[in-house]
């Protein structure tokens, strides 16, 4: 197994969390390099595209969250081998990335009123649309998993988004938006939190 070092921001969520969770579930050792926000300006130029997450694999670097998540999914047997199921898994991960991109574009808005307007439009528009659609996808796939009738990195990716939105840390995004728009995603997240490895991981953190 290669030597792995994941570099991401120091919080339990976002684009790095599905990678951490996949490695934790599989019991694969990795260095969890957590960057504090005040360290980021100094470290940003050293990353391939000026953003995190970044994964070092035996010293070689790859970036882009879904690329990393897929790669780690293959190492951990949490990514489908069947091409169609892999496509279903990718589709869900890319839909989550659509939303992450929308959220990311509001983070640097400095003017409080402009940020409020942008966030409220996001919550009422693309965020609601994506949450409703992801909820419907999960339902159409049996209600438990997004692909392959088993736990895959798509589930970990959606979980990380849902946990982030429900934590209420994003100003002007109502913390109950997921509960109102996508109740199946809430059940899905609650189930994942009961996974023995995930529960033990968060208990120890
Ligand atoms: N397309 C990239 C986007 C990465 C990205 O925007 N990451 C955010 C954190 S979730 C970041 O590094 N923000 C700080 C910055 O852009 O300076 C990916 O999927 O990894």
Summarize this structure as a short list of keywords or feature phrases.
about 200 residues; alpha+beta; Glutaredoxin; Glutathione S-transferase Yfyf (Class Pi), Chain A, domain 2; 2 domains; four-stranded mixed β-sheet; 4 strands; about 60% helix; globular; binds glutathione
What's the short story on this structure?
The chain has 205 residues and is an alpha+beta fold. Helices cover 58% and strands 9% of the residues.
Total separate domains: 2
Q: Helix coverage percent of residues?
A: 55-70%
Provide the β-strand percentage band. 5-15%
Q: How confident overall, as mean pLDDT?
A: 97
List the helices and strands and how they pair.
Layout: E1 4-9, H1 17-26, E2 31-35, H2 40-43, E3 54-57, E4 60-63, H3 65-75, H4 83-107, H5 112-140, H6 153-166, H7 177-181, H8 183-194, H9 196-204
Parallel strand pairs: 1-2
Antiparallel strand pairs: 1-3, 3-4
Helix pairs in contact: 1-3, 1-6, 4-5, 4-6, 6-8
Report on this structure.
The chain is α+β, with helices and mostly antiparallel strands and 205 residues long. It folds into two domains: 4-77, Glutaredoxin (3-Layer(aba) Sandwich), CATH 3.40.30.10; 83-195, Glutathione S-transferase Yfyf (Class Pi), Chain A, domain 2. It has helices at 17-26, 40-43, 65-75, 83-107, 112-140, 153-166, 177-181, 183-194, 196-204; strands spanning 4-9, 31-35, 54-57, 60-63. Strands 2-1-3-4 form a four-stranded mixed beta sheet. β1, α1 and β2 form a beta-alpha-beta unit. The radius of gyration is 17 Å and the shape is globular. The two termini are 25 Å apart.
């Amino acid at each position: 197994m290669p030597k792995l070092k994941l570099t991401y921001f120091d919080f339990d969520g976002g684009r790095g969390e599905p990678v951490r969770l996949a490695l934790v579930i599989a019991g694969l050792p990795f260095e969890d390099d957590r960057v504090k926000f005040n360290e980021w300006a100094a470290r940003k130029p050293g990353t391939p595209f000026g953003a995190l997450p970044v994964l070092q694999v035996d010293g070689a670097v790859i970036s882009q969250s879904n690329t990393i998540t897929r790669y780690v999914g293959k190492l951990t047997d949490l990514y489908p081998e069947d091409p169609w199921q892999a496509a279903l898994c990718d589709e869900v991960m890319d839909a989550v990335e659509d939303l992450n991109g929308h959220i990311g574009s509001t983070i640097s808005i400095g003017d409080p009123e402009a940020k409020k307007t942008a966030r409220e439009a996001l919550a009422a528009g693309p965020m609601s649309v994506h949450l409703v659609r992801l909820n419907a996808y999960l339902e159409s796939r049996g209600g438990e998993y997004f692909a392959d009738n088993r736990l895959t990195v798509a589930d970990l990716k959606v979980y990380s988004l849902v946990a982030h939105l429900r934590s209420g840390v994003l100003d002007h995004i109502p913390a109950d938006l997921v509960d109102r728009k996508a109740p199946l995603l809430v059940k899905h997240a609650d189930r994942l939190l009961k996974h023995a490895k995930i529960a033990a991981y968060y208990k120890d953190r």
